[in-house]
Amino acid sequence: MKWKLAAMFLGVSLALAACGGGGDNAGEKNDGSNGGGDTAAAAEQIFKQNCASCHGQDLSGGVGPNLQKVGSKYSKDQIKDIIANGRGAMPAGIIKGEDADKVAEWLAAKK
């Protein structure tokens, strides 16, 4: 029983480390590089760089929950709050500032 608990703890620890691996500059990769182009494309790129390791490239989930229809459950503001403060095993602040706004708006449109 102790081995199962230890193995589960190790697995959860590894999953959290993978999701939180963006570092302090995780959202800075796209600052200004879009040049006023398509916001949805920029948001998708930010998502792929910071979130896809847990939520899947196609939003289907994995370590994190499926986000393919997250907009039917949460508003843009609620999604932004989850990004800022974390929820469950998701660490807080993986994406910050304007990048968090873009991703929240993009995910809120997923219905």
Polypeptide structure, described:
The structure is a single chain. The protein is mainly α. It has a domain of 71 residues: Cytochrome c-like domain (Cytochrome Bc1 Complex, Chain D, domain 2, Orthogonal Bundle). The protein is 50% helix and 0% strand. It contains five helices and no strands. It is globular. It starts with a helix and ends with a helix. Keywords: Electron transport, Heme, Iron, Metal-binding, Signal, Transport.
CATH homologous superfamily label of the domain at 37-107: Cytochrome c-like domain
| Number of separate helices | 5
CATH fold field value of the domain at 37-107: Cytochrome Bc1 Complex, Chain D, domain 2
Q: What is the CATH-assigned architecture of the domain at 37-107? A: Orthogonal Bundle
Overall form: globular
Number of strands: 0
Helix-strand string: HHHHH
Strand content: under 5%
Most strands sheet = none
Helix content: 40-55%
Please state the CA-atom Rg, rounded to the nearest Å.
Answer: 15 Å
Residue stretches low in confidence (pLDDT < 50, at least 5 long) are 21-37
Provide mean pLDDT, rounded.
81
Which structural class do the helices and strands define? mainly alpha
Distance between the termini: 42 Å
- What's the CATH first level of the domain at 37-107? Mainly Alpha
Binding site for heme c: 51, 54-55, 90
Pfam family, one: Cytochrome_CBB3
GO cellular component, one term: membrane
Signal peptide: 1-17
Task: Give me some keywords for this one.
111 residues, heme, signal, Cyt_c-like_dom, 5 helices, mainly alpha, iron, Cytochrome Bc1 Complex, Chain D, domain 2, Cyt_c_BACSU-c550-type
